[in-house]
Amino acid sequence: MTTDLISSLSAVGPHDEQHQVPLDYDPSTCDGVKHLMETFPDLQTIPPHYVLPEALLAKPVAEAQLPLIDLSGLEDGSQCRAFTVQAISSACSEWGVFRAVNHGIAEQLVADMLEAAEGFFALPVEAKRALSSGDVMNPVRCGTGLNAPAAAYAGHYWRDFLRHHGHPFHSHIHLWPSHPPTYREVTREYLVAVRRMVLRLARAISEGLALQEDQLTRALQEGCQIMAANYYPRCPEPEKTMGMAGHSDHGGLTVLIDNGVGGLQVRHGGAWMAATPVHGSLIVNVGDYLEVFTNGRYKSVEHRAVVNKRRTRISVGVGHGPGLDTIIAPAAQLVGSDDDHGPRYGSVVYKDYVKSQQSSVARGKTALEALSLDGPNEPSTGG
Ligand SMILES: O=C(O)CCC(=O)C(=O)O
Protein backbone atom coordinates (compact mmCIF):
# COMPACT_ATOMS: atom_id res chain seq x y z
CA MET A 1 0.00 0.00 0.00
CA THR A 2 1.51 3.35 -0.94
CA THR A 3 1.74 6.28 1.44
CA ASP A 4 -0.77 8.13 -0.75
CA LEU A 5 -3.21 5.27 -0.50
CA ILE A 6 -2.78 5.11 3.26
CA SER A 7 -3.45 8.83 3.53
CA SER A 8 -6.54 8.51 1.39
CA LEU A 9 -7.78 5.53 3.40
CA SER A 10 -7.07 7.41 6.59
CA ALA A 11 -9.27 10.17 5.28
CA VAL A 12 -12.26 7.95 4.53
CA GLY A 13 -13.19 5.01 6.75
CA PRO A 14 -14.20 5.61 10.36
CA HIS A 15 -11.34 4.47 12.55
CA ASP A 16 -9.22 5.34 15.50
CA GLU A 17 -6.07 6.54 13.77
CA GLN A 18 -3.71 5.16 16.37
CA HIS A 19 -5.18 1.78 17.17
CA GLN A 20 -7.09 0.50 14.18
CA VAL A 21 -6.64 0.39 10.45
CA PRO A 22 -9.34 1.94 8.25
CA LEU A 23 -12.45 -0.24 7.94
CA ASP A 24 -12.00 -0.49 4.19
CA TYR A 25 -8.41 -1.66 4.48
CA ASP A 26 -7.90 -4.52 1.99
CA PRO A 27 -4.93 -6.81 2.71
CA SER A 28 -5.12 -8.44 -0.74
CA THR A 29 -3.86 -5.17 -2.23
CA CYS A 30 -1.43 -4.29 0.55
CA ASP A 31 2.31 -4.57 0.88
CA GLY A 32 2.32 -7.09 3.66
CA VAL A 33 2.27 -7.25 7.43
CA LYS A 34 5.66 -5.64 8.01
CA HIS A 35 4.51 -2.57 6.13
CA LEU A 36 1.17 -2.68 7.95
CA MET A 37 2.87 -2.61 11.36
CA GLU A 38 5.22 0.17 10.29
CA THR A 39 2.33 2.21 8.96
CA PHE A 40 0.21 1.70 12.08
CA PRO A 41 2.81 1.12 14.83
CA ASP A 42 0.28 1.56 17.63
CA LEU A 43 -2.17 -0.94 16.24
CA GLN A 44 -3.94 -2.80 19.01
CA THR A 45 -6.41 -4.87 17.03
CA ILE A 46 -5.63 -6.74 13.84
CA PRO A 47 -7.66 -6.03 10.67
CA PRO A 48 -10.63 -8.44 10.43
CA HIS A 49 -9.18 -10.23 7.37
CA TYR A 50 -6.42 -11.63 9.55
CA VAL A 51 -8.78 -13.07 12.16
CA LEU A 52 -8.94 -16.79 11.43
CA PRO A 53 -11.82 -19.14 12.25
CA GLU A 54 -11.52 -20.72 15.68
CA ALA A 55 -10.89 -24.18 14.18
CA LEU A 56 -7.72 -22.96 12.46
CA LEU A 57 -6.24 -21.18 15.46
CA ALA A 58 -3.46 -22.56 17.61
CA LYS A 59 -4.24 -23.35 21.23
CA PRO A 60 -1.39 -23.45 23.78
CA VAL A 61 0.65 -26.55 23.08
CA ALA A 62 3.23 -28.72 24.81
CA GLU A 63 6.92 -28.64 23.95
CA ALA A 64 8.02 -31.25 21.38
CA GLN A 65 10.94 -33.44 22.41
CA LEU A 66 12.29 -33.63 18.87
CA PRO A 67 14.96 -36.23 18.10
CA LEU A 68 18.37 -34.55 18.33
CA ILE A 69 20.93 -36.04 15.95
CA ASP A 70 24.66 -35.41 15.96
CA LEU A 71 25.64 -35.43 12.29
CA SER A 72 29.35 -35.75 13.06
CA GLY A 73 28.51 -39.46 13.22
CA LEU A 74 28.22 -39.40 9.41
CA GLU A 75 31.79 -38.24 8.89
CA ASP A 76 34.14 -40.59 7.03
CA GLY A 77 35.59 -43.20 9.35
CA SER A 78 33.22 -42.40 12.23
CA GLN A 79 32.58 -45.39 14.51
CA CYS A 80 29.07 -44.04 15.04
CA ARG A 81 27.89 -44.11 11.43
CA ALA A 82 25.55 -47.10 11.77
CA PHE A 83 24.07 -45.62 14.96
CA THR A 84 23.57 -42.20 13.31
CA VAL A 85 22.00 -43.75 10.20
CA GLN A 86 19.60 -45.63 12.46
CA ALA A 87 18.77 -42.46 14.42
CA ILE A 88 17.98 -40.59 11.18
CA SER A 89 15.87 -43.46 9.93
CA SER A 90 13.83 -43.62 13.17
CA ALA A 91 13.37 -39.84 13.27
CA CYS A 92 12.14 -39.79 9.65
CA SER A 93 9.65 -42.60 10.20
CA GLU A 94 8.40 -41.63 13.67
CA TRP A 95 8.48 -37.82 13.54
CA GLY A 96 9.28 -36.65 10.01
CA VAL A 97 11.44 -34.00 11.65
CA PHE A 98 14.58 -33.76 13.78
CA ARG A 99 17.12 -31.30 15.08
CA ALA A 100 20.62 -31.64 13.66
CA VAL A 101 23.74 -30.59 15.58
CA ASN A 102 27.39 -30.70 14.44
CA HIS A 103 25.89 -30.32 10.98
CA GLY A 104 28.94 -28.70 9.41
CA ILE A 105 27.34 -25.31 8.64
CA ALA A 106 29.26 -22.51 10.36
CA GLU A 107 27.31 -20.57 12.98
CA GLN A 108 28.49 -17.31 11.38
CA LEU A 109 27.10 -18.38 8.00
CA VAL A 110 23.70 -19.10 9.57
CA ALA A 111 23.78 -15.65 11.23
CA ASP A 112 24.81 -14.01 7.94
CA MET A 113 21.96 -15.74 6.08
CA LEU A 114 19.41 -14.50 8.61
CA GLU A 115 20.89 -11.02 8.44
CA ALA A 116 20.73 -11.04 4.62
CA ALA A 117 17.05 -12.06 4.80
CA GLU A 118 16.34 -9.33 7.36
CA GLY A 119 18.16 -6.83 5.13
CA PHE A 120 15.96 -7.80 2.22
CA PHE A 121 12.74 -7.33 4.21
CA ALA A 122 14.03 -3.94 5.39
CA LEU A 123 14.13 -2.64 1.79
CA PRO A 124 11.54 -0.07 0.73
CA VAL A 125 8.22 -1.59 -0.33
CA GLU A 126 8.86 -0.61 -3.96
CA ALA A 127 11.87 -2.97 -4.12
CA LYS A 128 9.80 -5.85 -2.77
CA ARG A 129 6.83 -5.01 -4.96
CA ALA A 130 9.10 -5.36 -8.00
CA LEU A 131 9.58 -9.03 -7.10
CA SER A 132 5.96 -9.83 -6.32
CA SER A 133 4.17 -12.25 -8.61
CA GLY A 134 0.92 -14.19 -8.63
CA ASP A 135 2.61 -17.09 -10.44
CA VAL A 136 3.54 -19.68 -7.82
CA MET A 137 6.12 -21.20 -10.21
CA ASN A 138 8.01 -17.95 -10.68
CA PRO A 139 11.65 -18.66 -9.74
CA VAL A 140 11.75 -15.51 -7.57
CA ARG A 141 8.69 -14.33 -5.74
CA CYS A 142 7.93 -11.97 -2.92
CA GLY A 143 4.55 -11.83 -1.20
CA THR A 144 2.47 -11.95 1.94
CA GLY A 145 0.19 -14.53 3.60
CA LEU A 146 -0.11 -17.96 2.00
CA ASN A 147 1.86 -18.81 -1.11
CA ALA A 148 -1.29 -18.71 -3.21
CA PRO A 149 -2.11 -15.24 -4.56
CA ALA A 150 -3.85 -13.26 -1.82
CA ALA A 151 -6.88 -12.57 -3.97
CA ALA A 152 -7.66 -16.31 -4.04
CA TYR A 153 -8.65 -16.68 -0.40
CA ALA A 154 -10.45 -14.90 2.37
CA GLY A 155 -8.17 -15.50 5.35
CA HIS A 156 -4.83 -13.78 5.66
CA TYR A 157 -1.76 -14.96 7.48
CA TRP A 158 0.63 -12.77 9.44
CA ARG A 159 3.69 -13.37 7.29
CA ASP A 160 5.66 -11.79 4.46
CA PHE A 161 7.89 -13.99 2.35
CA LEU A 162 10.58 -14.14 -0.28
CA ARG A 163 10.89 -17.41 -2.20
CA HIS A 164 13.45 -18.23 -4.81
CA HIS A 165 15.20 -21.12 -6.45
CA GLY A 166 18.80 -21.86 -5.47
CA HIS A 167 20.78 -24.66 -7.09
CA PRO A 168 21.57 -24.70 -10.02
CA PHE A 169 22.79 -21.17 -9.37
CA HIS A 170 23.68 -20.22 -12.93
CA SER A 171 19.99 -20.43 -13.84
CA HIS A 172 18.73 -18.26 -11.00
CA ILE A 173 21.29 -16.14 -9.19
CA HIS A 174 20.89 -13.18 -11.55
CA LEU A 175 17.19 -13.11 -10.62
CA TRP A 176 17.76 -12.98 -6.84
CA PRO A 177 17.43 -9.70 -4.97
CA SER A 178 20.46 -7.50 -5.62
CA HIS A 179 19.99 -5.76 -2.26
CA PRO A 180 21.23 -5.78 0.41
CA PRO A 181 24.54 -5.77 -1.50
CA THR A 182 25.83 -8.96 0.15
CA TYR A 183 22.56 -10.86 -0.38
CA ARG A 184 23.63 -12.94 -3.39
CA GLU A 185 27.08 -13.83 -2.07
CA VAL A 186 25.88 -14.83 1.41
CA THR A 187 22.84 -16.70 0.17
CA ARG A 188 24.85 -18.65 -2.37
CA GLU A 189 27.39 -19.66 0.25
CA TYR A 190 24.64 -20.73 2.63
CA LEU A 191 22.73 -22.69 -0.03
CA VAL A 192 25.89 -24.53 -1.10
CA ALA A 193 26.55 -25.53 2.52
CA VAL A 194 22.94 -26.64 3.12
CA ARG A 195 22.88 -28.68 -0.06
CA ARG A 196 26.10 -30.43 0.89
CA MET A 197 24.56 -31.38 4.24
CA VAL A 198 21.33 -32.56 2.61
CA LEU A 199 23.21 -34.82 0.20
CA ARG A 200 25.05 -36.39 3.17
CA LEU A 201 21.68 -36.97 4.80
CA ALA A 202 20.27 -38.47 1.59
CA ARG A 203 23.13 -40.99 1.48
CA ALA A 204 22.47 -41.91 5.11
CA ILE A 205 18.75 -42.26 4.40
CA SER A 206 19.44 -44.58 1.46
CA GLU A 207 21.69 -46.64 3.69
CA GLY A 208 18.98 -46.80 6.36
CA LEU A 209 16.51 -48.02 3.74
CA ALA A 210 19.03 -50.62 2.51
CA LEU A 211 18.68 -49.33 -1.06
CA GLN A 212 21.28 -50.95 -3.29
CA GLU A 213 21.08 -48.12 -5.76
CA ASP A 214 21.17 -44.61 -4.36
CA GLN A 215 18.44 -43.08 -6.53
CA LEU A 216 17.50 -40.67 -3.74
CA THR A 217 20.88 -38.92 -3.58
CA ARG A 218 21.03 -38.85 -7.37
CA ALA A 219 17.54 -37.35 -7.62
CA LEU A 220 18.35 -34.63 -5.07
CA GLN A 221 21.76 -34.00 -6.62
CA GLU A 222 20.18 -33.36 -10.01
CA GLY A 223 17.13 -31.75 -8.49
CA CYS A 224 15.95 -28.35 -7.37
CA GLN A 225 16.57 -26.27 -4.29
CA ILE A 226 13.95 -23.70 -3.27
CA MET A 227 14.44 -21.23 -0.46
CA ALA A 228 11.74 -19.37 1.50
CA ALA A 229 12.61 -16.52 3.83
CA ASN A 230 9.72 -15.70 6.17
CA TYR A 231 9.16 -12.50 8.13
CA TYR A 232 6.59 -12.53 10.93
CA PRO A 233 6.35 -9.11 12.58
CA ARG A 234 5.14 -8.76 16.14
CA CYS A 235 1.37 -9.01 16.18
CA PRO A 236 -1.02 -7.11 18.49
CA GLU A 237 -3.44 -10.06 18.71
CA PRO A 238 -1.38 -13.21 18.05
CA GLU A 239 -4.07 -15.47 19.50
CA LYS A 240 -6.49 -14.49 16.70
CA THR A 241 -4.28 -15.28 13.72
CA MET A 242 -1.33 -17.40 12.56
CA GLY A 243 1.93 -16.80 10.74
CA MET A 244 1.57 -19.84 8.54
CA ALA A 245 -1.10 -22.52 8.25
CA GLY A 246 -0.29 -26.19 8.90
CA HIS A 247 1.26 -27.79 5.83
CA SER A 248 3.88 -30.28 4.75
CA ASP A 249 6.66 -29.35 2.33
CA HIS A 250 6.58 -30.66 -1.23
CA GLY A 251 10.27 -31.62 -1.47
CA GLY A 252 12.43 -34.35 0.02
CA LEU A 253 14.26 -32.61 2.86
CA THR A 254 13.90 -29.04 4.14
CA VAL A 255 16.44 -27.35 6.40
CA LEU A 256 15.04 -24.58 8.58
CA ILE A 257 16.82 -21.89 10.62
CA ASP A 258 15.36 -18.99 12.59
CA ASN A 259 16.45 -15.93 14.52
CA GLY A 260 15.95 -17.59 17.90
CA VAL A 261 12.34 -16.41 18.29
CA GLY A 262 10.00 -19.37 18.79
CA GLY A 263 6.95 -19.96 16.63
CA LEU A 264 7.42 -23.24 14.79
CA GLN A 265 4.98 -26.00 15.72
CA VAL A 266 5.00 -29.57 14.43
CA ARG A 267 2.25 -32.17 14.37
CA HIS A 268 3.09 -35.46 16.00
CA GLY A 269 0.74 -38.28 16.90
CA GLY A 270 -2.21 -36.06 15.93
CA ALA A 271 -1.21 -33.26 18.37
CA TRP A 272 0.48 -29.93 17.67
CA MET A 273 3.66 -29.27 19.62
CA ALA A 274 6.03 -26.33 19.92
CA ALA A 275 9.53 -26.74 18.48
CA THR A 276 11.32 -24.05 20.46
CA PRO A 277 14.66 -22.95 18.94
CA VAL A 278 17.80 -24.65 20.28
CA HIS A 279 20.90 -22.57 19.64
CA GLY A 280 23.29 -24.14 17.14
CA SER A 281 20.83 -26.72 15.87
CA LEU A 282 18.99 -26.82 12.54
CA ILE A 283 15.55 -28.27 11.96
CA VAL A 284 15.36 -30.92 9.23
CA ASN A 285 11.88 -31.73 7.87
CA VAL A 286 10.82 -34.69 5.77
CA GLY A 287 8.72 -33.49 2.81
CA ASP A 288 6.10 -35.15 0.62
CA TYR A 289 8.53 -36.33 -2.07
CA LEU A 290 10.38 -38.43 0.51
CA GLU A 291 7.11 -39.83 1.85
CA VAL A 292 6.13 -40.86 -1.69
CA PHE A 293 9.61 -42.17 -2.57
CA THR A 294 9.71 -44.35 0.57
CA ASN A 295 6.15 -45.54 -0.09
CA GLY A 296 5.05 -44.08 3.25
CA ARG A 297 7.84 -45.48 5.47
CA TYR A 298 8.97 -41.94 6.16
CA LYS A 299 6.32 -39.35 6.92
CA SER A 300 6.36 -35.75 5.82
CA VAL A 301 5.78 -33.59 8.87
CA GLU A 302 2.93 -31.14 9.07
CA HIS A 303 4.13 -27.88 10.57
CA ARG A 304 2.97 -24.30 11.02
CA ALA A 305 4.10 -21.01 12.52
CA VAL A 306 2.46 -18.95 15.26
CA VAL A 307 3.24 -15.30 15.91
CA ASN A 308 3.81 -13.34 19.09
CA LYS A 309 3.09 -9.95 20.60
CA ARG A 310 6.61 -8.70 21.20
CA ARG A 311 9.19 -9.87 18.72
CA THR A 312 9.65 -10.25 14.98
CA ARG A 313 10.46 -13.77 13.93
CA ILE A 314 12.51 -14.52 10.83
CA SER A 315 12.99 -18.01 9.44
CA VAL A 316 14.68 -19.37 6.34
CA GLY A 317 13.66 -22.79 5.02
CA VAL A 318 15.50 -24.46 2.16
CA GLY A 319 13.70 -27.32 0.41
CA HIS A 320 15.45 -29.94 -1.75
CA GLY A 321 13.46 -31.94 -4.25
CA PRO A 322 13.99 -33.85 -7.48
CA GLY A 323 14.13 -32.11 -10.86
CA LEU A 324 10.89 -30.35 -11.72
CA ASP A 325 10.31 -32.66 -14.72
CA THR A 326 10.87 -35.85 -12.69
CA ILE A 327 7.96 -38.25 -12.31
CA ILE A 328 7.70 -38.91 -8.60
CA ALA A 329 6.47 -42.33 -7.43
CA PRO A 330 7.35 -44.91 -4.76
CA ALA A 331 10.82 -46.45 -5.34
CA ALA A 332 10.39 -49.90 -6.92
CA GLN A 333 12.66 -51.45 -4.25
CA LEU A 334 10.34 -50.22 -1.51
CA VAL A 335 7.15 -51.59 -3.03
CA GLY A 336 6.25 -55.24 -2.44
CA SER A 337 4.13 -57.40 -4.70
CA ASP A 338 1.58 -58.48 -2.06
CA ASP A 339 -1.47 -56.42 -1.15
CA ASP A 340 -0.04 -55.28 2.20
CA HIS A 341 3.08 -53.76 0.68
CA GLY A 342 1.80 -52.53 -2.66
CA PRO A 343 2.24 -48.94 -3.88
CA ARG A 344 0.56 -46.44 -1.57
CA TYR A 345 0.90 -43.42 -3.86
CA GLY A 346 0.28 -42.76 -7.51
CA SER A 347 2.79 -40.97 -9.72
CA VAL A 348 2.88 -37.36 -10.80
CA VAL A 349 5.29 -34.96 -12.50
CA TYR A 350 6.97 -33.12 -9.62
CA LYS A 351 6.39 -29.71 -11.23
CA ASP A 352 2.63 -30.38 -11.35
CA TYR A 353 2.68 -31.50 -7.72
CA VAL A 354 4.52 -28.33 -6.64
CA LYS A 355 2.15 -26.16 -8.61
CA SER A 356 -1.00 -27.72 -7.20
CA GLN A 357 0.34 -27.70 -3.63
CA GLN A 358 1.51 -24.09 -3.82
CA SER A 359 -1.65 -22.82 -5.49
CA SER A 360 -4.03 -24.50 -3.09
CA VAL A 361 -5.56 -22.68 -0.17
CA ALA A 362 -6.40 -26.03 1.44
CA ARG A 363 -3.43 -26.81 3.65
CA GLY A 364 -2.47 -29.73 5.88
CA LYS A 365 -1.41 -32.69 3.76
CA THR A 366 -4.21 -32.38 1.23
CA ALA A 367 -1.94 -32.43 -1.84
CA LEU A 368 -0.34 -35.68 -0.68
CA GLU A 369 -3.70 -37.17 0.24
CA ALA A 370 -4.86 -36.58 -3.32
CA LEU A 371 -1.98 -38.78 -4.50
CA SER A 372 -2.57 -41.46 -1.88
CA LEU A 373 -3.99 -44.81 -2.98
CA ASP A 374 -5.00 -45.57 0.66
CA GLY A 375 -7.75 -42.96 0.99
CA PRO A 376 -7.74 -39.84 3.18
CA ASN A 377 -5.59 -39.62 6.32
CA GLU A 378 -6.58 -38.16 9.64
CA PRO A 379 -7.93 -34.66 8.97
CA SER A 380 -5.76 -31.74 9.95
CA THR A 381 -7.18 -28.93 12.07
CA GLY A 382 -5.96 -26.23 14.38
CA GLY A 383 -5.99 -26.71 18.11
O1 LIG B 1 8.73 -20.22 9.91
C1 LIG B 1 8.71 -21.41 10.16
O2 LIG B 1 9.17 -21.89 11.18
C2 LIG B 1 8.05 -22.35 9.19
C3 LIG B 1 8.40 -22.01 7.77
C4 LIG B 1 7.78 -22.94 6.79
O3 LIG B 1 7.07 -23.86 7.14
C5 LIG B 1 7.97 -22.75 5.36
O4 LIG B 1 8.68 -21.81 4.95
O5 LIG B 1 7.40 -23.56 4.58
From TrEMBL:
Residues 220-322 form the Fe2OG dioxygenase domain. Belongs to the iron/ascorbate-dependent oxidoreductase family. This is Fe2OG dioxygenase domain-containing protein. Keywords: Iron, Metal-binding, Oxidoreductase. The keyword Iron applies. GO terms for molecular function: metal ion binding; oxidoreductase activity. InterPro entries: DIOX_N, IPNS-like_FE2OG_OXY, IPNS-like_sf, Oxoglu/Fe-dep_dioxygenase_dom, Plant_2OG-oxidoreductases. Gene3D superfamilies: B-lactam Antibiotic, Isopenicillin N Synthase, Chain. It comes from the Eukaryota.
